[in-house]
Amino acid sequence: MKFNSLFLSTLGLVAVASAQRQVLVTYPNDTPPSVVEQAKSAILATGGKITEEFSLIKSFAATVSSDIIDTLNALSTSHKPIVEDDQTVTIQRQTPLEH
Fold first, then answer.
1. Strands in the chain per DSSP E
2. Closest CA to 81 of 57, 48, 45, 50
3. CB atoms inside a 10 Å sphere around CB 58
4. CA angle (17, 53, 67) in 5-degree steps
5. Which run of H or E residues covers position 35?
6. How far is CA 51 from CA 6, 11, 44, 91, 94, in A?
7. Which of 4, 17, 40, 92 is deepest in the core (most CB within 10 A)?
8. 4, burial (CB in 10 Å: exposed 0-12, middle 13-18, buried 19+)
9. pLDDT tens per residue, range 2-27
C-alpha cells in the first residue's frame, strides 16, 4: 500500500509540473506600471515564477500554470497583454551574402 501511495503522489507531482508553461507577457506601451505589477503578483500567487524582466518594453518572461492566462487577460479591460509561449528563435542564412 505504501508503494501505491508513493507512486500516486509522484504521479500527482508530475501532473502539476507538466501544467507549467514558459511564456512571454507583453503589454502595450501605454500600460500603467500598476497593471504589469498586478499581473506579476497574480502569477506569483498561483505558484508561478517571473524569470526575466525587460526594461525597453513592458514585458516579462515567466513560468506559469496554464489557467493563469485567462486571469491575466481579465485584469485590465483597456490594457490587454499578449501572452505567447517562450521559445528559442534562430536565424539561419540559406545562401551566403554577395559583396
1. 20-26, 49-54, 59-65, 82-85
2. 57
3. 21
4. 35
5. helix 33-45
6. 31, 26, 11, 24, 33
7. 40
8. exposed
9. 545 544 444 444 445 447 999 999 99
Given phi > 0 = left and psi -120 to 50 = alpha, else beta, which region is 88?
A: beta
Cell of 57: 518594453
SS3 label, residue 60: strand
pLDDT in tens, 67-96: 898 899 898 889 999 999 988 878 877 777
Q: At residue 74, what is the residue type? A: A
Q: Which three cell numbers stand for residue 37?
A: 505589477
DSSP state of 79: S
